[in-house]
TrEMBL record:
Gene that encodes it: lgt
GO terms (BP aspect): lipoprotein biosynthetic process
Protein name as it appears in the record: Phosphatidylglycerol--prolipoprotein diacylglyceryl transferase
InterPro entries named among the record's database cross-references: Lgt (IPR001640)
Family matches, as PANTHER family: PHOSPHATIDYLGLYCEROL--PROLIPOPROTEIN DIACYLGLYCERYL TRANSFERASE (PTHR30589:SF0), PROLIPOPROTEIN DIACYLGLYCERYL TRANSFERASE (PTHR30589)
Origin superkingdom: Bacteria
KW Transmembrane (keyword) present: yes
Gene Ontology CC, one term: plasma membrane
Similarity annotation: Belongs to the Lgt family.
Compartment(s) of residence: Cell membrane
Keyword set, alphabetical order: Cell membrane, Lipoprotein, Membrane, Transferase, Transmembrane, Transmembrane helix
Length: 268
């Protein structure tokens, strides 16, 4: 094992306290993701191909509000059901114990999909078209959230001997992959660049959302090999983590959406 390694900066998760209220880095990262989504979504509303689809700033603001609710509710419910099922059975009120933390991206995604379905139905729009519009807005928020995890010194990686291995005080004395930063780079920045470039001009309906599912699923699947599995779950069948098993359906569904989108375009 190497003797030279990095040490986590041990940043205080609380930025500032005002009376009983604490401003936390993780909460600030959520705000950064929301504000970026608001800015980029309004930018998209001015692009000709989105204008032609009837998008405008008022319609988008309604969508963003409900999508944010979907992220929070779905993220919490998903975490409890996917990662803390047995604990939930023993303590059903744990679902509402938001002070203990715990959010799941895959649960948040399901929550957003439910909101998108309702929004599409309410506004007589295609669910796939609504998904295409919102997909490029998501990655930066995901990346910001992973930076929040890094600041908190949580969700660290597996033990490693790479030169950039980092010791996280809460994880023991051995250096580990800073997998939160891997996720921020791949699921956040890189995926955003790919989606932003791909969505600059009209694409087959469903293909942008499909590309998001494939991109996130692949990035998460790969990084999970460097991320420490949840201690109470460990590795599951085939040596895959829960995150990898939850990412596989995303990849399959995303590929299916892309193929169907282009087949439908060719028919037309």
């Amino acid at each position: 094992m190497q003797t030279n390694y990095l040490v986590h900066p041990n940043i205080d998760p609380i930025i500032i306290s005002i009376g009983p209220l604490d401003l936390r880095w993780y909460g600030l990262m959520y705000l950064v993701g929301f504000l970026f989504a608001w800015w980029w979504g309004n930018r998209q509303c001015r692009q000709p191909h989105y204008v032609a689809q009837g998008w405008n700033e008022k319609l988008f603001s309604d969508l963003l509000f409900w999508a944010f609710i979907g992220v929070i509710v779905g993220g919490r419910v998903g975490y409890v059901l996917f990662y803390q099922w047995q604990y939930f059975l023993d303590n059903p009120l744990y679902l509402f114990d938001i002070t203990s933390g715990g959010m799941s991206f895959h649960g948040g995604l399901l929550g957003v999909i439910a909101v998108l379905w309702w929004f599409a139905w309410r506004n007589q729009r295609s669910l796939l078209a609504v998904g295409d519009f919102i997909a490029p807005l998501v990655p930066i928020g995901l990346g910001a959230g992973r930076i929040g995890n890094f600041i908190n010194g949580e969700l660290w990686g597996r033990v490693t001997e790479v030169p950039w291995g980092m010791v996280f005080p809460a994880a023991g004395e051995l250096p580990r992959h800073p997998s939160q930063l891997y996720q921020a780079g791949l699921e956040g920045l890189l995926l955003f660049v790919i989606l932003a470039l791909y969505s600059r001009k009209p694409r087959p309906v469903g293909s942008i959302g499909g590309l998001f599912l494939v991109g996130y699923g692949c990035a998460r699947f790969v990084v999970e090999y460097a991320r420490e599995p949840d201690s109470h779950l460990g590795l599951l069948a085939f040596g895959w983590s829960m995150g990898q098993w939850l990412s596989m359906p995303m990849i399959v569904i995303g590929l299916g959406l892309i193929v169907l989108a282009y087949k439908q375009q060719n028919k037309q």
